[in-house]
């Protein structure tokens, strides 16, 4: 499992520590994990029906990648946030706030206001401790449980004999892990699976047979990109291309395109495309020239990135603002079409 996941972590400038029974304090016969497993029903098989209490293993880093919470970097895949305060040389308070605020916004959307509030308080800490990071990672693991509880597509890497981890399904991450399996001579069907509770989807298939039949009756705007890729609605080459691109959208990827093409887009347009609240779009994000292309759509600051100094705004973006040129993409649908046209 680690041989499959570790390269994806490394590609985003992160590191993955191998699990080994030689690390006695964590995996030896007297390690706390075994008592924990016995107390809560033992390890679950994600591919079998679950009754009672069982334990699923997950991995916070995989959550960050799957949910698109990486940060812009020279590498196409971006970089993972450096939010472990124990690693003082690498730790970034901005990255810490980014993860806290991203998680807070997600819990808020789920109606879990108490969890959201705790994460907001954690984001405001000037000097978080390792115990704070452990609690934050627990919140990320809880998001996986909620994801599964909602019956949404999930990702399983590994197997029940040698070890596995589960996380939210991401089309781009799924394809990346399948490719990795082939490169190291592993059968993707044995190592990388997409599943819903009691429902397994094999890699490389069209996914159409595995999509919940109720999705056929959903309004088009409520069908997820993953469902649309397998849905009869996606019956044209252009539509399929559009939805394939939509399935991989996240904020860093959108910002890369806006910056590359010197195009401004409103907070509302970006939020609508990502399915989040406009006020949470830039939570934890740096006020950098790359992000200055995301701007306000109304009010006195229309066309300006909120809270930026002129030095933090890209020179071309600043020129467009002052001259009233360039225009602002101010709807999610307009932004979707613009992104598709740039990727055709």
The profile of the biggest β sheet is: 4 strands, antiparallel
User: Biggest sheet, strands in spatial order?
Assistant: 2-1-3-4
Give the overall average pLDDT. 81
Low-confidence spans: pLDDT under 50, at least 5 residues?
Answer: 200-248
Number of helices: 15
Order of helices and strands, N to C? HHHHHHHEEHHEEHHHEHEHEH
The overall number of domains is: 2
The class by helix and strand makeup works out as: alpha/beta
Separation, N- and C-terminal Cα atoms? 34 Å
Strand content: 5-15%
Could you estimate the helical fraction of the residues in percent?
A: 40-55%
Q: Tell me the Rg in angstroms.
A: 21 Å
What would you call the shape?
A: globular
Characterise this structure.
The chain is built from 15 helices and seven strands. It has 344 residues and is an alpha/beta fold. It folds into two domains: 2-149, no CATH class; 251-343, no CATH class. Strand 5 (264-266), helix 13 and strand 6 form a beta-alpha-beta unit. Helix 1 (2-11) packs across helix 8, helix 5 runs antiparallel to helix 6 (113-123) and helix 13 packs across helix 15 (332-343). The longest helix has 20 residues, at 130-149. 34% of the residues are buried.
